[in-house]
Amino acid sequence: VQLQASGGGLVQAGDSLRLSCAASGRTFSIYTLDWVRQAPGKEREFVAGINWSTGNTYYADSMKGRFTISRDNARNTVYLQMNSLKPEDTAVYYCAADRRPRARPLVTMSFDSWGQGTLVTVSS
Question: Peptide bond preceding 87: is omega within 30 degrees of 0, i.e. cis?
Answer without folding.
Answer: no
